[in-house]
Design goal:
The protein is of the alpha/beta class. It is built from five helices and nine strands. Strands 5-4-3-8-9 form a five-stranded mixed beta sheet. Strands 1-2 form a two-stranded antiparallel sheet. The protein has a two-stranded antiparallel sheet with strand order 6-7. The chain is globular and about 40 Å long.
């Protein structure tokens, strides 16, 4: 039993094994919910990028078979965790970003509804996903990213959290990792 009831937990399938510390990020610009365009490879200092599959909307059905896909559930509580700890991340010198394959227009609704104080990046075209070979899955004919978090610094990966077993508690784990370094 997980924090999400009986939804299946993700397993480490090796899908992020190639995302090693010091791996350079691709120089790609992604649209953000705050109206900016962000090139993660060009950011100075440390950033946390919470990659998630999809956020639902009240009154709208989940994608097909969502309840059966390990790790699919949990994006809203995960982003709320980062939201609630955003000042602690900032105090430690780390920016936060979310990233999914949803469009910026779709993501903006979620940002307002959940009061998310950090930019959510859209990789709707899948260029960032392809450049880093991010782990993904398909349901209902759509590609979704598997949940993982990248801690990046000065254009390269510092560490990767994958898989994320407890999305609602994940921000705490990432913050603790940052505070210990």
């Amino acid at each position: 039993m997980t924090e999400h009831g009986s939804f299946p937990r993700p397993m480490d399938d090796g899908g992020a094994d190639h995302l090693k510390p010091s791996l350079k990020l691709p120089s790609l610009v992604l649209p953000a919910t705050d109206g900016s365009e962000v090139c993660l490879a060009g950011l100075p200092g440390r950033s946390v990028v919470a990659v998630y599959p999809w956020t639902g909307r009240p009154g709208h059905a989940n994608p097909p078979d969502w309840d059966l896909i390990p790790g699919a559930h949990g994006s809203t509580p995960e982003l709320e965790g980062f939201r609630d700890l955003s000042s602690a991340f900032a105090a430690g010198g780390a920016r936060i970003f979310g990233l999914s394959r949803q469009t910026t227009a779709y993501q903006r609704e979620m940002v307002v509804r959940l009061r998310v104080p950090f930019p959510i990046l859209s990789d709707a075209e899948g260029r960032f996903t392809a450049a880093l070979a991010l782990p993904s899955f398909v349901t209902g004919g759509e590609i979704y990213l598997k949940r993982l978090t990248l801690v990046i610094g000065d254009g390269s990966i510092k560490t990767v959290f994958y898989p994320v077993h407890e999305p609602a508690r994940h921000a705490n784990d990432v913050l603790l990792w940052l505070q210990q370094r």
